[in-house]
Design a protein that fits this description.
Radius of gyration: 21 Å
Structural class: alpha/beta
Number of strands: 8
Strand order of the largest sheet: 1-5-6
Largest sheet: 3 strands, parallel
Strand content: 15-25%
Shape: globular
Low-confidence stretches: none
Helix content: 25-40%
Mean pLDDT: 90
C-alpha cells in the first residue's frame, strides 16, 4: 500500500522543484515534489474518488485540486511547466480573471506552499493507503484551518487511513463539521490527546470519540479550552477597570 507522509517543516516557496523517483506519484516528505505531482496528475488525466469531488462537473484531479484550494485561496489557479531536460518543474499561481501575470511561489505567502502538498497528497492517495500530516494548519488563517480539517475528513471517508498531528482547535472543529454534515462517519473519527504528568517519563494519552451530533466524549484540561479561559480573564479585567474608573 502507498504511504504518504508530510512533516511539519515543509518546503517554503520555490521557483523550481525537483522530480520524484518514487514508483507512485508523491509530494515528498517536505512537499518538495508537489509541483511534479501536480504536473504528472494532470498529464495522466487522473481522477479522484467520488467522496473528494467538490466540483460537480468533473472528476479530474486538477479540477478538484483547484476546487479545494479555492476554499483556502479564493479564485486561485495552479499552473505547472515541466523542464525534463533538467528534471525540474515550475509551479505558478494566478487568480482567475485577475489582470496580472501568474505569480511564482516565491511571490506568494507560505500558506499556499505549506497546504498545497496536503491537498495534493489527499487527492492522490488511493483507498487502502495511509496519509500522515503534521500540523496541516501551519501558516493558515482560522477559516482555512477549518477547511483543511474538513478536507482531511473527506480523504478518510474515501478509504485512506489519515493520521493528523495538530495543535489547532479549528482543524478539529473542521473534522467535527464534516462528521455532523455526513462527509465522514463519526465512528470513523478518533482523537488522541497527549499530555505530560509530572514525574512520569511517558506521555499520558486520552482517547476521545465523536458522537452523531459531533460532540466530544471528553475535554481534558488544556484541550482547546484556552479561548474560554482568556475570555473569562478579559471579562474580569473589564469589570475591575470599570470599578476602578467609577471609584476614581
Amino acid at each position: 500500500a502507498q504511504f504518504h507522509y508530510l512533516i511539519a517543516e515543509r518546503n517554503g516557496p520555490r521557483d523550481l522543484s525537483g522530480v520524484s523517483d518514487e514508483s507512485f506519484i508523491s509530494t515528498g516528505l517536505a512537499g518538495e515534489y508537489t509541483a511534479d505531482a501536480i504536473a504528472r496528475g494532470e498529464s495522466q488525466n487522473l481522477t479522484v474518488h467520488e467522496k473528494l469531488r467538490i466540483v460537480e462537473d468533473s472528476d479530474l484531479f486538477k479540477v478538484q485540486l483547484e476546487g479545494w484550494m479555492r476554499l483556502l485561496v479564493p479564485g486561485v489557479r495552479i499552473i505547472t511547466q515541466s523542464y525534463p531536460e533538467i528534471n525540474r518543474v515550475r509551479l505558478s499561481i494566478e487568480k482567475a480573471n485577475a489582470p496580472v501575470a501568474p505569480l511564482l511561489p516565491t511571490n506568494t505567502g507560505f500558506g499556499i506552499s505549506y497546504v498545497l502538498p496536503v491537498v495534493v497528497s489527499g487527492l492522490l492517495a488511493p483507498p487502502g493507503s495511509m496519509l500522515i500530516v503534521e500540523n496541516p494548519e501551519a501558516h493558515l488563517h482560522p477559516a482555512a484551518q477549518s477547511a483543511i480539517g474538513q478536507f482531511l475528513a473527506c480523504v478518510a471517508s474515501a478509504g485512506v487511513q489519515v493520521v493528523v498531528e495538530t495543535h489547532s482547535e479549528n482543524v478539529i472543529n473542521g473534522v467535527r463539521l464534516a462528521a455532523i454534515s455526513g462527509l465522514v462517519r463519526s465512528e470513523d473519527v478518533a482523537l488522541l490527546f497527549f499530555s505530560s504528568i509530572e514525574g512520569d517519563t511517558q506521555p499520558h494519552m486520552d482517547q476521545i470519540s465523536i458522537d452523531a451530533l459531533a460532540e466530544l466524549s471528553a475535554w481534558p484540561a488544556g484541550f482547546f479550552d484556552q479561548q474560554s479561559k482568556d475570555l473569562a480573564k478579559l471579562v474580569a479585567a473589564r469589570r475591575a477597570r470599570r470599578a476602578k474608573v467609577q471609584a476614581g
